[in-house]
Amino acid sequence: MTGSESRGRSKKYPFYHHQKQNCIKARFIPKEIFEQLFVEYLESITPNARFEKIFKAVVIDIWKNNYRKLDEELNMGEVLDYCFRFVRNTAKVWMGLEPKFLAGLSFQKRIIIGTGDLSPIYQLNQEYNKQKSSLAARLGSYFELGTL
Q1: What is the rounded CA–CA span in Å between residue 146 and residue 144?
Q2: pTM exceeding the 0.70 threshold for the entire prediction
Q3: Please, which domain of life does this record's source organism belong to (predicted)?
Q4: Whole domain around residue 56: which residue ranges?
Q5: Residue 144 has pLDDT above 60, yes or no
Q6: Per-residue confidence at 145, pLDDT binned at 50, 70, 90?
Q7: For the chain, how many structural domains are there in total?
């Protein structure tokens, strides 16, 4: 996706569109509509309060069991509170930034499918919402891989 402006008689009209003009899937979407759709997408991937509560409980439990020495230097509860202040407001934060999609953006028939890569916390939230499986097991694998 890239952006440009069309010029009318008296003003400019900003659009997002596919970079390859000759692509059969290329569409021009007005900037306001596209950005509203992206905000709605961000809101749809934002973890809810239940996920946040479970996530924090599991991380703190893993932290206490595996990283007890570091607990004197770092308060994991405060770290998680800070993290979720951002995560809860992803759409609002994004609206205040300059849009850049380094890994691409999937868009189909006026629906945003997703970005190229979700960060681990959003991936976990998506998996949790789909499967309602053990969040503790998934978090454990992220800790083992060092990706959280």
Answers
A1: 5
A2: no
A3: Bacteria
A4: 48-87+118-148
A5: no
A6: very low
A7: 2
